[in-house]
Amino acid sequence: MKKERILIEGDRYLLYYTFDDEETEDSHKARKPEPVPEARPETND
Amino acid sequence: MSELRWNPVLEEWTVTATHRQERTFLPPPGYCPLCPTAPGGFTTEVPAPTYDIVVFENKFPSFSRHAGPPSVEGNPLHPVERSIGVCEVVLYSPNHKNTLTDEPVGQIHKLIRVWTDRFAELGARPEIKYVFIFENKGEVIGVTINHPHGQIYAFPYIPPRITRELESSGAHYRKTQRCLFCDIRADEQQDGRRLVYRNAAFTAFIPFSARYPYEVHIYANRHYSALTDMTGDEQRALADALKVVLLKYDHLFGFSFPYMLLLHQRPTDGGLYDYYHFHIEIYPPMRTATKLKYLAGCESGAGTFINDTLPEEKAAELRAAEPKT
Questions:
Q1: Is the pLDDT of residue B122 over 80?
Q2: Which of B56, B139, B292 comes nearest A8 by C-beta?
Q3: How confident is the model at residue B95 (pLDDT cuts 50, 70, 90)?
Q4: What is the spatial distance between Cα B318 and Cα B205, in angstroms, rounded to a whole number?
């Protein structure tokens, strides 16, 4: 895991995290689809 | 303007953060400040065409590295302090429509590694006494930007809820020489009625005295007190446990279920808290698919929660929900 630090506004920072090692089983570019629920609008009474 | 005002009756700090009234509120499609910046498009908080996981300092922080002097003078009865600290936003994914539940286990594992890094870095700052990692999901919780993200509040003090857990677990340890949370996990495992999911490193259950319907706690099976104590296998197991529990919520209710997800770890004030135990607590704000659980008079005014459900019954519902466990 690597992180790159930049400044985005004054000295407010932003960190980009990247994962080019094999610690995690799948990269962002090669995501495997997993079952997800169908979205339905939230309703309350 | 942000400051700490002491409540002498409850003996706790209130954070006033008036600038947060101006924060982004449910921006229209195409103007999400947490999406990557598209070439030639609206400039977001992330000046890049894509990203994996991003952390940035909150534009509207409750605690700030540069907190100015308080707006009023305090006195012995009403102390006031600068609201020194750090507030960060953690972006889980560049995909605006995703939720943490939608993310693959591998992406959740990456997030846990980022959480671990933030805990270590922020906790090392001398002014930071507690690193609180959490996610509010859903507009009913008060989320103002619908993009998969969580937050980190690096506190200049140990917050009262954690203080209470430290006091109870410390007293239990002094009395029994055992960890209170390990005893609870063992009891829940032996009883079984409130279990929701278990893998090699984590146990998820609805607590015996749950305050919210469908409240789930995820305890580490091994005794340790912070993310930085976890092995790689335990990080992966936590990603698996989170994925399963969050999927169960969505499948049981049939929609993307709102929640508060809270990581409870040891303080970072230099004290010894070996008796404390890493765990995650998830509070859903809904008691049915269409009814909210309000924190009304008794909860807010008396401090006693009224739970309209039996934890044993709600745990059975969650066990039966896909993925079945």
A1: yes
A2: B56
A3: very high
A4: 10
Which residue type occupies B221?
N
Which residues of B are known to be catalytic?
149
pLDDT over 70 percentage in chain A: 44
**Non-local CB neighbours of A22 within 8 Å, separated by 6+ positions:** none
What ranges in chain B are assigned the alpha helix state H? 105-123, 160-176, 180-191, 232-253, 311-320
| Yes or no, beta carbons of B57 and A36 under 8 Å apart | no
pLDDT at B84: 97
pLDDT of res. A24 = 57
Q: Name every chain B residue with its beta carbon within 8 A of the beta carbon of A17.
A: 52-55, 110, 114, 117
Average pLDDT estimate for A28-39? 39
- In terms of C-beta density within 10 A (0-12 exposed, 13-18 middle, 19 or more buried), how is residue B325 classed? middle
Q: Could you give the CA distance from residue B54 to residue B94 in angstroms, rounded to a whole number?
A: 9
Contact B172, B181 (CB under 8 A): no
Residues B74 and B80: beta-carbon distance below 8 Å: yes
Q: What is the pLDDT of residue B281?
A: 98
CB of A29 within 8 Å of a chain B CB? The answer is no
For the cut 90, the answer to whether the pLDDT of residue B24 exceeds it is no
Q: Do B275 and B173 form a contact (C-beta atoms < 8 A)?
A: yes
The beta strands (E) that lie in chain B are given as 2-7, 12-17, 53-57, 80-82, 86-91, 130-137, 149-155, 195-198, 202-205, 216-220, 259-264, 279-283
Whether B56 and A15 lie within 8 Å, measured CB to CB: yes
